[in-house]
Design brief:
- By secondary structure, this protein is an alpha+beta fold.
- It contains seven helices and 13 strands.
- The protein has one domain: Fumarylacetoacetate hydrolase, domain 2 (Alpha-Beta Complex), CATH 3.90.850.
- The strands form two sheets. Strands 1, 2, 3, 5, 6, 7, 10 and 11 form an eight-stranded mixed β-sheet that branches. It has a five-stranded mixed β-sheet with strand order 4-13-12-8-9, with no helix packed on it.
- Strand 12 and strand 13 form a beta hairpin.
- Helix 1 crosses helix 3 and helix 5 packs across helix 7.
């Protein structure tokens, strides 16, 4: 386990990287014996810094829910991060060029909760009963840690990503809100274009075969770490069903969710 001072130092470095838009080195290079528990401890310390600075927690994001991403990182479980109020963008918003470092976009289904969920033992049916509605969503990813170390060429690991708040940076919700029992979320999907060219397509089934399963996993994981759980009114991003799309300067990202509406962002 990392020492408390090492955890706090890593959180401070991540915070400074986000503020200054300057990436830091891989934590797993600096701490080769780092564990998943260490990574969540760093994330938790960073979350506390953000809250102390006046940010409000509005929900959660779940990542690494697709088999393709899990195979790429040699893991078999998702990861999670925390959503803050300053991460919210309106549908059709312009993202200023000085906001992020290396933004990427994922298409997801957002769950808006009407009841709290506290593990252990939370099931998919518990999630559906606790959900007010689901809606199309885009997640903006950013990396405060190098994806690949410039000197050693070592790629970041899942422990780096978890420490980096699961690469979480922004959220857009919109389109048509739907009650969870009025839709088969496995077939809710999107066609995602960049500058009018289709880049990715996907279906909700790509998220653990049922997007609600990720919400149950999150509630149970939070219980393992002694946290309160998912609260009523919070938003939870269930996980992407497409490959991340690079959002370059001048790009327009458009996600067509068919009968459930569309979302877009423009990057200066």
């Amino acid at each position: 386990m990392l020492a408390e001072q090492e955890i706090l130092a890593a959180a401070a470095a991540l915070d400074e990287a986000e503020i200054n838009r300057k990436q830091i080195g891989l934590l797993t290079l600096k701490h080769p014996d780092m564990t998943m528990d260490d990574a969540y401890a760093v994330q938790g310390a960073w979350v506390k810094r953000k809250v102390a600075a006046g940010r409000k927690v509005i929900g959660w994001k779940i990542g690494l829910t697709s088999k393709a991403m899990q195979y790429a990182l040699n893991i078999n479980i998702p990861d999670s991060g925390v959503l803050f109020d300053d991460m919210v963008f309106e549908d059709g918003a312009t993202v200023t060029k000085d906001r992020f470092i290396q933004p990427r976009i994922e298409a997801e289904i957002a769950f808006v909760m009407k009841k709290s969920l506290k593990g252990p033992g939370i099931t998919v049916f518990d999630v559906l009963n606790a959900t007010d509605y689901v809606t199309p969503a885009l997640e903006i990813l950013d990396t405060r840690i190098f994806r690949v170390d410039p000197e050693t060429k070592k790629a970041r690991t899942v422990f780096d990503t978890i420490s980096d708040n699961a690469a979480n940076a922004g959220i857009v919700t919109g389109g048509r809100a739907v009650k969870p029992d009025a839709i088969d979320m496995r077939w809710m999907g999107a066609i995602v274009s960049r500058n009018a060219e289709v880049e990715e397509t996907g279906l909700g089934a790509g998220v653990l075969n049922q997007p609600a399963r990720g919400i149950a996993w999150l509630a149970n994981r939070l219980a393992q770490y002694g946290e309160e759980g998912i609260e009523a009114g919070q938003v939870v991003l269930a996980g992407s069903f497409i490959r991340p799309i690079e959002a370059r300067h001048g790009d327009t990202i458009f996600a067509d969710f068919g009968p459930y509406g569309s979302l877009s962002l423009f990057f200066e």
